[in-house]
C-alpha cells in the first residue's frame, strides 16, 4: 500500500509530520490517518510560515477532502478553554462538555434555502465542538455478522445508539480515534467497497455514555466469524505482497484479538514480523489450502477482497 495514494504528503511535509523519508508521529497515529480517523493529541514542533513561528503546537490531526476534492490535512489545536458554537445554548454546551450527552442534532437553513442537519460533538482532548453532516456518513451493512436495517443505518448516521439482538450496542463517535462507542471491546464491520463486501476490525472503542458497568468481554459468534473473515483478507494481502507493512500490522491486531476468543485454551499470541511475512505464501491462506471451496464461496457471496 503506497502511503502517497492515501495521505496528502505535501501537507505532512510542510508541517513536519513526514521528514527525511519517515513519519515523525507514532505509527498508530499514522494508521488512524490512513483509516480516515482523528489521531490522538500529537505535538507539532518548529512550525514556521509567513509572519508565524510556533515552537510547539499540541493538536489532533485528520484527513479531510480539500476544496479541490483531494485529501488535505486538518489540524485541530488544543484550546485552553472550551470554544463556543453558534448553534448551541449555554445549557447544551455544558451537557456536551460534562458528557451528559454524546452529541446533539441541529437543523438549519443553508444559503440556498434548504434545511440541513448537523450532528455536534464535544472533543475532550482539544476542548472544542466538532460537527459532521450525517448525509455524508456511510453506514456499515452489518456489524458482527448482523445485518443492519434501514432504520438502524439511519440511527448510525445520525449519531444515535444502535442495539443488536445479542445486546451489542454501538454509536458513531467521529471525534475518537476508533470512530465508535460501544459496550464491546471490538467490532467487525461489513462495508461495501467497490461493489463488494469487505470486513473491518475496529478495536480500542470508546465506552457508551451512561454505562456504569464495564465493557462486555463476551464475544459473539458473529464477532468471531467476522475476525476470521478479516484474517482471510489480510492473508491474501500478505501472500500478494510480503512487504505490505500495513497488512503485517493488521495481522498482528487480528492475531491478538483471536488469542482472546478462547482464553482457557493454550493459544499463544505470536506477533508477525517481516521475516514471517516473507515466508508467508499462498499455501498459508485458506484459498491455498482449499482453493475450490473458497472460489465457490467467493462467487456465492460476491465479495471483494
Automatic annotation (TrEMBL):
Residues 280-305 are annotated as: Disordered. InterPro entries: DUF4099. It comes from the Bacteria. It comes from Rhodonellum ikkaensis. Pfam families: DUF4099. This is DUF4099 domain-containing protein. Residues 7-86 form the DUF4099 domain.
Amino acid at each position: 500500500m503506497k502511503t502517497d495514494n492515501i495521505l496528502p504528503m505535501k501537507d505532512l511535509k510542510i508541517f513536519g509530520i513526514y521528514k527525511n523519508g519517515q513519519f515523525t508521529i507514532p505509527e498508530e497515529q499514522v494508521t488512524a490517518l490512513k483509516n480516515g480517523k482523528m489521531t490522538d493529541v500529537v505535538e507539532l514542533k518548529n512550525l514556521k510560515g509567513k509572519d508565524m513561528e510556533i515552537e510547539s503546537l499540541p493538536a489532533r490531526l485528520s484527513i479531510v477532502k480539500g476544496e479541490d476534492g483531494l485529501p488535505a490535512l486538518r489540524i485541530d489545536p488544543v484550546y485552553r478553554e472550551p470554544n463556543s458554537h453558534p448553534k448551541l445554548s449555554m445549557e447544551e454546551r455544558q451537557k456536551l462538555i460534562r458528557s451528559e450527552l454524546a452529541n446533539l442534532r441541529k437543523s438549519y437553513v443553508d444559503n440556498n434555502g434548504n434545511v440541513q442537519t448537523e450532528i455536534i460533538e464535544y472533543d475532550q482532548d482539544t476542548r472544542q465542538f466538532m460537527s459532521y453532516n450525517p448525509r455524508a456518513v456511510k453506514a456499515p451493512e452489518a456489524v458482527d455478522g448482523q445485518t443492519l436495517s434501514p432504520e438502524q443505518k439511519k440511527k448510525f448516521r445520525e449519531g444515535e445508539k444502535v442495539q443488536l439482538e445479542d445486546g451489542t450496542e454501538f454509536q458513531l463517535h467521529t471525534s475518537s480515534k476508533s470512530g465508535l462507542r460501544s459496550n464491546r471491546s471490538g467490532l467487525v464491520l461489513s462495508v461495501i467497497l467497490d461493489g463488494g463486501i469487505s470486513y473491518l476490525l475496529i478495536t480500542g472503542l470508546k465506552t457508551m455514555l451512561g454505562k456504569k458497568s464495564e465493557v462486555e468481554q463476551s464475544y459473539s459468534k458473529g464477532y468471531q466469524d467476522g475476525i476470521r473473515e478479516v484474517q482471510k483478507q489480510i492473508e491474501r494481502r500478505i501472500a500478494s505482497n510480503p512487504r505490505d507493512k500495513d497488512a503485517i500490522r493488521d495481522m498482528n491486531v487480528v492475531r491478538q484479538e483471536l488469542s482472546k476468543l478462547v482464553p482457557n485454551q493454550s493459544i499463544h499470541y505470536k506477533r508477525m514480523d517481516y521475516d514471517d511475512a516473507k515466508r508467508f505464501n499462498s499455501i498459508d491462506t485458506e484459498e491455498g489450502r482449499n482453493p475450490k471451496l473458497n472460489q465457490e464461496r467467493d462467487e456465492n457471496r460476491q465479495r471483494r477482497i
